[in-house]
Glycosyl transferase family 1
Amino acid sequence: MKIAMIGQKGYPAHYGGVERHVAEISERLVRDGHDVTVYNRAWYGGKQQGNVNGIIVATVPTIRTKHLDAIVHTFLSTFHAIFKKADVIHYHGVGPSLLSWIPRVFSPKTLVVSTFHSIDRYHEKWGWFARTMLRLGERFSHTFPHETIVIAPALESYCRKEFKAETHYIPNGTTVHEEGTTPYSPKTTILDEFNIEKNNYLLLVSRLIPAKASHILIDAFVHLKESQKDNDVVRTLKLVIVGGSVYTNTYVASLHKQASACSDIIFTDFQSGNALEDLFRSSLGFIHPSITEGMPLAVLEAMGYGKPTLVSAIPEHMQLIQNPQMLFRENDADALEEKILEFVNLSQEDRDTIGLANKMYVTKHYDWKHSTELLAELYESAYTKHINPTKKRQVHTVHNTA
């Protein structure tokens, strides 16, 4: 099938959960014989066009402002996909789904699918008008697409309660990493660059937006360092924050100011590839203090590395982490500080046991291959049901020349 992915910032995935999701499933769909086009924004993925890892990357223009970037890119990408006669147009996110009516009107032989990744209107970066539009996007994601996908059971329940809508639950996946399998030997690493030591730092990987609650983590860490000056483990411990602004420059500046009195808090900006792998592998543990989530890919990734993972006690996290030792009250710096202290005072054997349990859990329940198979089955069955009920669609094979 000819499949168009719209709504993500681009490809390859440098950062962002939606971008990673699209990259992982698109690469596997291509290997399974489908023709996949991923729409790209030049500021994110460069001005590339054509075949990248077997995926057709289509860079179309946009207007790079907070409120116009996604919707303009979605509009132009949609008409490009219609012109290219895509069999499936798949929208990612409730914002892009605002335009899911367009192919229903102008390309009735195209299957339209939407994935509801998160309740974006909860993010504090949006004003009242944007939140209203995102709420409308939630409704549109169930009204115009032929099929709607959610990536977490909490979102499935939300859609059923708010819109009386039935959805398809297809979870995110992760890659399980074995110790000592790093396929490269650089002269210097990201650890050298930022003067951090293996197993002597806690890691956060996240977009720096208020909903991810990095400020809560910084508050907890700064107070921990001040209150535990006689604790040898705490005294040398560092906090590494990987991520940057997403139209949230004021918030990011406030984080740097908040952390300025503590030299053990390190901001690396966005990282990807080998650098990000090194940071995950070498961390003592991972922390994710979000107030709202869809299905947190960064948490899944940390679990795939076998890392103990401290998370806020929101439903989306508690689907992944059930160990009460590793849960803290959301939006509560004191509770997080207490849990960090408990965690760093655990024996290495106890930390390894927690990390191994995480790895075993995601290995069993969150596999990209299985999620991609579920998606491909949905495409085929939905196409037959809605577009061509009299004849089963033939798979269009693409040879990977990347």
